[in-house]
Amino acid sequence: MNTSSKQSPNINPHVSVDCVIFGFDDDKLKVLLIEQAHPNKETHRLALPGDLVFENEGLDEAAARVLNELTRLKGIFLRQFHAFGNPDRVSNDKDKEWLETYRTDPNARVITIAYFSLVKMEEYNPGTGSFAAASNWVDIHDVPELAFDHNQILDKALEALREEINHNRIGLDLLPKKFTLSQLQRLYEVILDRPLDKRNFRKSIKKMHHIKALDERQTGVNHKPAQLYKFVQVKKIALNFSLLHLFQE
Amino acid sequence: MNTSSKQSPNINPHVSVDCVIFGFDDDKLKVLLIEQAHPNKETHRLALPGDLVFENEGLDEAAARVLNELTRLKGIFLRQFHAFGNPDRVSNDKDKEWLETYRTDPNARVITIAYFSLVKMEEYNPGTGSFAAASNWVDIHDVPELAFDHNQILDKALEALREEINHNRIGLDLLPKKFTLSQLQRLYEVILDRPLDKRNFRKSIKKMHHIKALDERQTGVNHKPAQLYKFVQVKKIALNFSLLHLFQE
Question: How much is the ipTM here?
Fold first, then answer.
């Protein structure tokens, strides 16, 4: 059985990992995409950073390694969210052509385990490596057709991300240590991709245990300085009922 | 490349699916386990219903098929929750011995995609098929050492289930159409596996949009008849803040 690839003899040709790294930059939600280098083509296809796993590594380990090899990023907490296994997910002509360049077994059915993360964009400057000719943050509204089933993976990752924020599991490090409610609302709006009602939003925030009003206001602004807030550690919540349905459609 | 198994020439030897079917029976949480038939052994190992996927089927499809082949159950909504891919997850001696009986490539690294579901136990009577010598509902407190990494898969499935109920995504069909708050509390307690404070529980329930008090009481009981409640359809919740932290540990 031939389990080698053109990249390494140690590779499992049947299972890959893909990483959906979302970046928040105060006003936009972006996703990290690579250009798949192709020796015979001028234009490269865009794709999520992803590659085959090694025979002797776990899936989480593979995701961190692959992300690092393709984009040079490390130290990002990656959360597994879904496995994609349509039998024909890597079998369209453009995908095939690329796979024939890079894989010894381009016809193998590959099942991919997908991971996502949300980071503060300014803290991560992606580089390139392996078959990535470039890596870029792309606004989620401007994502073109991607390689393989990567548009579908991205959509599902967005769902997973929105699920997280709907349950208030937001990255505490996405905002400055002390932030205004406008900044917090903007974070929710950018991730949910729609405007929220200011009054309802503030009403809900007041009831949240992990957001605390400070006895401080903004400085150095031209408008009336807004009150500042901070996140506080709440004790482990054992039973966390979702009660306030702010926006019903 | 040999992709056949002793069961079918159409099998992908690298990827499997496993199903964690929880059953609720008003007072207990159980899980559906099969006995892995072994031609040369009297005692069979217990395992989750799971098997390799076919080359030409999707993962969801494989999960439904495998569950049906092993336990004869069908029509259960299966939700994918995690992929398990430790390189040595099927390589202990007992696992190997069984795999050598059933698989042509017993040393292949198998990555498994796990699914879970919660059903009303009395509505599902499991049977047997394929390599399952028996199938039984087992109390989650009485689960012995299982084959492969199935104890770990079960633990993770329990986490996923508790996450669901913590966000009030409970199966509306697990209770009678009209139920008492004691019945509802018992459902939460059984799944969370710990007692809840009655007063706090009732306070929270009153604020839940999808649980409605009826102008009716129990009949045919010896004690003071309790008020009845029902689940109501709530509109799609777009932003669902979790506000009340009932129990902090």
Answer: 0.85
